[in-house]
Amino acid sequence: xxxxxxxxxxxxxxxxxxxxxxxxxxxxxxxxxxxxxxxxxxxxxxxxxxxxxxxxxxxxxxxxxxxxxxxxxxxxxxxxxxxxxxxxxxxxxxxxxxxxxxxxxxxxxxxxxxxxxxxxxxxxxxxxxxxxxxxxxxxxxxxxxxxxxxxxxxxxxxxxxxxxxxxxxxxxxxxxxxxxxxxxxxxxxxxxxxxxxxxxxxxxxxxxxxxxxxxxxxx
Length: 219
What we know:
Elements lengths: L2 E8 L1 H14 L2 E8 L12 E8 L1 H18 L2 E8 L3 H7 L31 E7 L2 H14 L3 E8 L4 E8 L1 H15 L5 E8 L3 H4 L12
Helix pairs in contact: 1-2, 4-5
């Protein structure tokens, strides 16, 4: 590992968009999503997530800076750092990953060390993330999105014992945008929205964390 970069932000949604931002900003690999610490009162979003990358020093620095600007714009930035030539003990920690392994991503290993290139990734013109509080709001939002446009669910991320649920849908940009707008509107009476983002042309470094074959018709 030539260089390691990490950014900590509020919310899983922000972490995923930050990862996509970093992958598009430089020639880096996204190696893990990790949780820093559980909920404490007073945070803008009751979840702190870290996104971790590796690559050449210059690429990692540029990528982390781009993600920092994005997260600051959302008011969700906490801290970021770049370590050139990390030591062996540090490198072992960098690959630690905290991702839900529900039915949508059972193929994802516990860490990606030495395994970044083993995935066959289906493309998507866009993915959308809706992060709400509780399963009830999440199901209401999913129903609304499925009825609003031609989208499919590719991942669910449950955090804080189900107090936060992130739904990730895939489809064409306009469909994903319409679905998210409808989903957010339908969940607002039941939950605060902690994340609502469309990622157009998501980088394969992001798609590898999700099973993009979910919902596709198979011969």
